[in-house]
């Protein structure tokens, strides 16, 4: 006796079950892929927003530093301007002090009988013009000028006899020298006068 067993319905059922499982897995894989893609896009947007925030903060900080730098440059320019003005005032003060020192020093070095009519000053160069009672007094003046430590390059440019003034004859002269004053006390020249 022959038995015939039909296995086809079982195979069809198994095939359908596999097909359904495959479709479910495919749908789940597509859904999971879409979810992962959406999560990755959201994460990238989130990171881009964070970086934009950092960039905005850095740009604001840079702008603030630029403003401070501009202010610092203005302060530096003002400092340079004030420093230049201070140096100018200081140089004028030194010139004024120098003129005062020269006016204090010259009478100490000019002996009696020598009269200075004109003093010309050009930086460190001084030129004297005047009259004298005698040549000996001019020699004394030259000696005092040459012995003064603040004075150098003493020259008698001219001596002219027979110049009448105040009803009597004088010798007119022109002398020049260089002077270097450093703000020290000029009493040292008194030793020259006494010497």
UniProtKB/TrEMBL annotation:
<dbReference type="Pfam" id="PF05137">
    <property type="entry name" value="PilN"/>
</dbReference>
<protein>
    <submittedName>
        <fullName>PilN domain-containing protein</fullName>
    </submittedName>
</protein>
<dbReference type="GO" id="GO:0043683">
    <property type="term" value="P:type IV pilus assembly"/>
</dbReference>
<dbReference type="InterPro" id="IPR007813">
    <property type="entry name" value="PilN"/>
</dbReference>
<feature type="transmembrane region" description="Helical">
    <location>
        <begin position="21"/>
        <end position="44"/>
    </location>
</feature>
<dbReference type="GO" id="GO:0043107">
    <property type="term" value="P:type IV pilus-dependent motility"/>
</dbReference>
<keyword id="KW-1133">Transmembrane helix</keyword>
<keyword id="KW-0812">Transmembrane</keyword>
<dbReference type="InterPro" id="IPR052534">
    <property type="entry name" value="Extracell_DNA_Util/SecSys_Comp"/>
</dbReference>
<keyword id="KW-0472">Membrane</keyword>
């Amino acid at each position: 006796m022959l038995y015939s067993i039909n296995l086809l319905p079982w195979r069809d059922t198994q095939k359908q079950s596999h097909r359904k499982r495959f479709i479910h897995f495919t749908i789940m894989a597509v859904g999971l892929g879409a979810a992962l893609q959406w999560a990755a896009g959201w994460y990238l947007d989130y990171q881009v927003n964070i970086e934009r925030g950092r960039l905005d903060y850095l740009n604001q900080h840079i702008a603030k530093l630029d403003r401070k730098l501009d202010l610092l440059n203005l302060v530096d320019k003002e400092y340079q301007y004030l420093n230049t003005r201070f140096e100018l005032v200081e140089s004028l003060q030194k010139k004024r002090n120098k003129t005062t020192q020269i006016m204090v020093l010259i009478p100490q070095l000019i002996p009696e009988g020598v009269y200075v009519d004109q003093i010309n000053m050009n930086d460190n160069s001084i030129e004297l013009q005047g009259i004298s009672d005698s040549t000996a007094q001019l020699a004394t003046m030259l000696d005092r000028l040459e012995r003064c430590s603040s004075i150098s390059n003493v020259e008698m440019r001219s001596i002219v006899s027979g110049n009448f003034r105040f009803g009597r004859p004088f010798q007119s002269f022109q002398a020049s020298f260089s002077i270097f004053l450093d703000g020290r006390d000029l009493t040292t020249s008194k030793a020259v006068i006494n010497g």
